[in-house]
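FORM 12-B: Structure-to-Sequence Request
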């Protein structure tokens, strides 16, 4: 029995040493104010920012997705390059799907799902007409963009119909 009490005492002592009571002199807190201010877009402008434009050179590539004979190459936070890969010896850039703040894409069947900042958007690309149609937008699925120094949208008082699209350094 003494063995169990000794073991219990050692366990309690061990776990107590792991507890942080908040009195550490080396603890540094975050600054009282952010060094950045948000660049805000209205929801209306944000939702109309998805466009299919002429192809352009790949400046910075991310993930590559395949749908049939087409490749979708992510340009981080800008959109997706649409490339006709029916002849892999000579891929042909077709268009650029401009989606500001787009970070990821998934394809199922003929529907393209895009992470568009705070929303999840379902799109359909028509290669014959070289057009894109927004099928559905699920609003506020993802959190607002945090500032580079870690502050959330609530700190800046961002309204429900506003989207943080970037941050600028305060002067």
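FORM 12-B RESPONSE
SEQUENCE OUT:
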């Amino acid at each position: 029995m003494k063995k169990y009490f000794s073991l219990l005492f050692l366990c309690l002592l061990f776990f107590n040493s792991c507890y942080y009571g908040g009195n550490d002199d080396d603890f540094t807190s975050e600054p009282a104010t952010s060094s950045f201010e948000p660049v805000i877009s209205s929801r209306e402008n944000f939702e109309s920012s998805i466009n299919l434009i002429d192809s352009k050179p790949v400046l910075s590539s991310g993930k590559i997705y395949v749908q049939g004979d087409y490749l979708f190459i992510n340009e981080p936070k800008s959109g997706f390059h649409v490339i006709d890969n029916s002849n892999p010896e000579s891929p042909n850039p077709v268009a650029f799907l401009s989606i500001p703040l787009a970070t990821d894409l998934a394809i199922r069947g003929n529907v393209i799902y895009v992470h568009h900042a705070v929303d999840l958007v379902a799109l359909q690309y028509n290669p014959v007409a070289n057009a894109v149609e927004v099928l559905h937008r699920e609003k506020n699925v993802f959190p607002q963009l945090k500032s580079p120094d870690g502050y959330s949208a609530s700190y800046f008082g961002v309204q429900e119909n506003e989207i943080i699209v970037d941050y600028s350094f305060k002067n």
